[in-house]
Amino acid sequence: MNRRNFIGRTAVLSAATLLPMSSFSLLGQSKYKMGYQLFSVRTDMAKDPLATIKALKEMGYEDFEFYGFDADKGLIYGYTPSELKHILDDLQLSITSGHYSFSPYLEKSEDELKHYVNQYIIAARALDSKYITWPYIAPEQRTLDNFKLMSYKLNLIGQQVNEAGLGFAYHNHGYEFEDYGGQTGFDIIINETDAKLVKLQMDMYWVMHSSKQTPKELIEKQPGRYVMWHIKDMDKISRDYSELGNGSIDYHSILPDPKASGLEYYYLEQGGNFTNSPMKSAADSAEYCKKHLRQYL
């Protein structure tokens, strides 16, 4: 390295030490891959998963979270996990988490649950995913007793998944923040699960939609536990989903400190209410994220 290059590089590094963490990524040091939750483009994935993934890559997405694993057939989007992994490797892409179907096993025996969790572990290992995520319980299951039962099951699953060398997380919606006998479902989950076994995936749309607390306040109470984020916007009128930048959530002010969160992966998402089409919404959200949010990530 010649003296001119050395001085120039030193000046940049010296300036970087004076910048806040969010500004440092402006120098091209983004730490996290831009991820997408594939439920957002479920109709396209059902028609042609390979073409859809390639199109998402062109938009700038590098990482994905999938949904819809068929444990009985051992297939994801019609592929075995190993086949899907080869496709992703060829495209230099990854799937770091999956939303697996746990809701049907909430009230089944521990042996049945253990069997299906083992199927999920096999799939996640084949994909080289780090996390298995519990995404949802059915409306009829949302009772005080069931939140307690689910917390017990979350600990069991967390232990099984962690012993397999993988991570396990719970994804929130809005119903967890409703009152169930003087406490919220979310409080029950937080208080009755082992933070070492059960990590959290924060859906920031639902926190802003339904919680009385902000993402930053939630993280202050459980620092290091929110290892994944879902980032999506809220329609200004209907409060339904919207493309990033079109809605009412000011992510410049509400995004927490990734380090305090324990963040490892984030995924943009839009479950519906598309302005034009799911793929156009994916492209619009990608552009907004690259221009406005990646400076924080």
Task: Write up this protein.
The structure is a single chain. The protein is an alpha/beta fold and 297 residues long. The protein has a single domain (25-296), classed as Divalent-metal-dependent TIM barrel enzymes (TIM Barrel, Alpha-Beta Barrel), CATH 3.20.20.150. Helices cover 44% and strands 16% of the residues. The protein is built from 13 helices and 12 strands. The strands form 3 sheets. The chain has an 8-stranded parallel barrel, surrounded by 5 helices. A two-stranded antiparallel ribbon has the order 6-7. A two-stranded antiparallel ribbon has the order 10-11. It starts with a helix and ends with a helix. It comes from Arenibacter palladensis. This is Sugar phosphate isomerase/epimerase. GO terms for molecular function: isomerase activity.
Write a concise synopsis of the structure shown.
Residues 1-27 have low confidence and may be disordered.
Keywords:
isomerase, isomerase activity, 297 residues, IolE/XylAMocC-like, alpha/beta, disordered N terminus, Xyl_isomerase-like_sf, 16% strand, two-stranded antiparallel sheet, Sugar phosphate isomerase/epimerase, 44% helix, TIM Barrel
Name the helicity range.
40-55%
The spatial strand order of the largest sheet comes to: 1-2-3-4-5-8-9-12
H/E series, N to C?
HHEHHEHEHEHEEEHEHHEEEHHEH
Count of extended strands: 12
Poorly predicted runs are: 1-27
Distance between the termini: 30 Å
CATH superfamily: Divalent-metal-dependent TIM barrel enzymes
What's the mean pLDDT score? 92
What percentage of the residues does DSSP assign to strands (E)? 15-25%
Tally the structural domains.
1
CATH topology: TIM Barrel
Structural class, from helix and strand content? Answer: alpha/beta
The biggest sheet, with number of strands, parallel, antiparallel or mixed sense and barrel status, is: 8 strands, parallel, barrel
Number of helical elements = 13
What is the CATH architecture descriptor?
Answer: Alpha-Beta Barrel
Q: What is the CATH class designation?
A: Alpha Beta
Coarse shape: globular
Radius of gyration over C-alpha positions, nearest whole angstrom: 20 Å
Keywords: Isomerase
Protein name: Sugar phosphate isomerase/epimerase
GO molecular function, one term: isomerase activity
Organism: Arenibacter palladensis
